[in-house]
Design a protein that fits this description.
The protein is of the alpha/beta class. The strands form 2 sheets. Strands 1, 5, 6, 7, 8, 9, 10 and 11 form an 8-stranded mixed sheet that branches. It has a 3-stranded antiparallel sheet with strand order 2-4-3. Strand 3 and strand 4 form a beta hairpin. Helix 12 crosses helix 13. The longest helix has 25 residues. The radius of gyration is 21 Å and the shape is globular. The protein starts with a helix and ends in a 12-residue tail after the last helix. The relative contact order is 0.21.
C-alpha cells in the first residue's frame, strides 16, 4: 500500500493519527494527488471496451472497437474487458506493471445529462438534490481537512489548479492559486515593472500578501517553462499538446504542490466519433501520452503519487445516427500511481445486456464517485469516517483497496 511505502520511506513503524483523523503531517506532505477532469463526457465504452459483450457489438455496428485478434482490435486486459489500441504505448505498460486500474460503472446520481450542471455537481461533491454551496468544492475541503491545525510545526499542504480560472472543486476556505501551463502561458500581459506597481497599490492592505504570492507563483511558473525552452536545444521531448502540460505539472508538483487539478476538454463526440482510429482515438492517444509523461517526469516521487481521471458522465451505449454517441450516465474512472494495487478492473460490476442498461440507454452507476474518492482519500491520508464525511457530506468511503 502507498501508506506503508511512505511510512517505510520515513522510517516510521506506526501510524500517527491526530484529532482530525488524518495521518501525521510528514506523510501527507509526501503524497501527491492529481485529479484530471475530462470535460464533455467521454465515451468510456471505447476506452474500456466490453469485449465479452455481444450486445456491445450489436449496439455499435460502425464505432465498436474490435475484439482482440482482429485488425484495430482492443488490447486484452481480462476475458471481459479490453483497452483502446491508441493507448498501447502509454497506458497498457502501466496497467501491466500494476500501476493503473479502471473503475467502470462509476459516476454520480445526477440525472440532468447537462455538462454544466453535472460538472458543477461533481466538483462541489455535495449531496445531489440538496442546496448547492458554490463556495465549497471537495478538493478544497480535503486540503482543509489535511492541513495541520494552528500552531503545528509541519507546513500546510499546497494545492494548485493548473487552469486559467479557479475551478469549483478547489474553491473554499483555503486560498488556492491557479495557473495555466499550456504552450504560450506564463507571464501574460503584466511585466515586472507593472507587477511592482500593482503590488505597491495593495501595500499595507489585507490583499498585500495574496497579491505578492500570486506574482511569486507566476514567476516560478515562468522560470520552469524557461528551463524547458533551454532544454529543448538539447533534444528535449516535444511539449506539443497535453504531454507538455503534464510534464510541467509534474515538475511543479514534485517540487512544491501536493494536490493538483487539471481539466481537458473536447470529449463531446456526437458526430463521427471514430473507432480504433479517428477523432476520439486521437484524443485518447494524446491524453495517454500526457499521463505517461507525467508519471515519467515525477521520477522517484511517482511512488507516492496517485492520479484519478474522471468525467461528468459517460455516453449512450448504442451509437447514434451520426456514428457518434450522446450524453449518457455511468462512466469509467482511471486510477494511476507508482504504488497502486492496479492491473485490474475494480469496483462493483455487472454484465452489459439490454436489461441492465440504465433507462435502456446508458451504463448504470454502481460506484458513486464520492464514495470511490472518499475511500481512496481514507487510504491515502488515513482519514477516518468522520473526516471523509466532512469532505463528502453524507458519504461513507468505499474501500476498493487501490492503494
Amino acid at each position: 500500500m502507498l501508506r506503508r511505502h511512505l511510512l517505510q520511506a520515513l522510517g516510521a513503524s506506526t501510524l500517527a493519527v491526530g484529532s482530525a483523523g488524518v495521518l501525521a503531517a510528514p506523510q501527507a506532505q509526501d503524497v501527491r494527488f492529481l485529479l484530471v477532469f475530462l470535460r464533455g463526457g467521454y465515451d468510456c465504452a471505447s476506452l474500456l471496451v466490453p469485449t465479452g459483450s455481444s450486445f456491445y457489438y450489436e449496439s455499435r455496428p460502425n464505432i465498436a472497437i474490435a475484439r482482440p485478434g482482429q485488425q484495430g482490435s482492443a488490447l486484452p486486459l481480462t476475458p471481459d474487458w479490453g483497452l483502446h489500441p491508441a493507448l498501447a504505448g502509454s497506458m497498457l505498460p502501466l496497467y501491466q506493471q500494476g500501476q493503473l486500474a479502471f473503475v467502470p460503472f462509476a459516476g454520480t446520481d445526477d440525472l440532468s445529462r447537462s455538462h454544466f450542471d453535472t460538472q458543477d455537481s461533481m466538483e462541489l461533491g455535495q449531496p445531489v438534490g440538496g442546496r448547492r454551496d458554490y463556495r465549497s468544492g471537495f478538493l478544497n475541503r480535503l486540503v482543509a481537512e489535511l492541513n495541520p491545525r494552528a500552531g503545528a510545526s509541519a507546513p500546510p499542504l499546497q494545492p494548485m489548479a493548473f487552469t486559467s480560472t479557479l475551478p469549483l472543486v478547489l474553491r473554499g476556505a483555503v486560498d488556492v492559486p491557479n495557473t495555466l501551463l499550456s504552450a504560450g502561458a506564463g507571464r501574460g500581459g503584466v511585466d515586472a515593472r507593472q507587477a511592482q506597481l500593482i503590488a505597491s497599490m495593495y501595500q499595507g492592505t489585507a490583499l498585500a500578501t495574496p497579491v505578492a504570492e500570486g506574482f511569486a507563483t507566476r514567476d516560478e511558473v515562468a522560470r520552469t517553462m524557461q528551463g524547458e525552452m533551454e532544454a529543448a536545444s538539447r533534444n528535449a521531448l516535444s511539449t506539443k499538446g497535453f504531454e507538455g502540460t503534464a510534464r510541467r505539472m509534474a515538475r511543479l508538483m514534485q517540487a512544491r504542490y501536493q494536490i493538483g487539478f487539471v481539466d481537458v476538454g473536447g470529449w463531446d463526440t456526437h458526430v463521427a466519433q471514430g473507432a480504433a482510429t479517428g477523432a476520439l482515438a486521437n484524443r485518447l492517444e494524446e491524453l495517454g501520452q500526457g499521463l505517461a509523461g507525467f508519471a515519467d517526469e515525477m521520477g522517484a516521487a511517482w511512488k507516492s503519487t496517485v492520479v484519478v481521471v474522471v468525467s461528468e458522465f459517460g455516453r449512450t451505449f448504442r451509437e447514434n445516427g451520426n456514428r457518434g454517441t450522446d450524453h449518457g450516465h455511468g462512466t469509467v474512472f482511471w486510477v494511476l500511481g507508482g504504488a497502486l494495487q492496479g492491473g485490474r478492473i475494480a469496483g462493483e460490476q455487472q454484465a452489459l445486456t439490454p436489461t441492465t442498461l440504465f433507462q435502456n440507454r446508458d451504463y448504470p452507476v454502481l460506484n458513486d464517485y464520492r464514495s470511490v474518492l472518499g475511500g481512496l482519500f481514507a487510504r491515502l491520508y488515513g482519514l477516518n469516517a468522520a473526516a471523509v464525511a466532512r469532505v463528502f457530506p453524507g458519504t461513507k468511503g468505499a474501500d476498493l483497496r487501490l492503494v
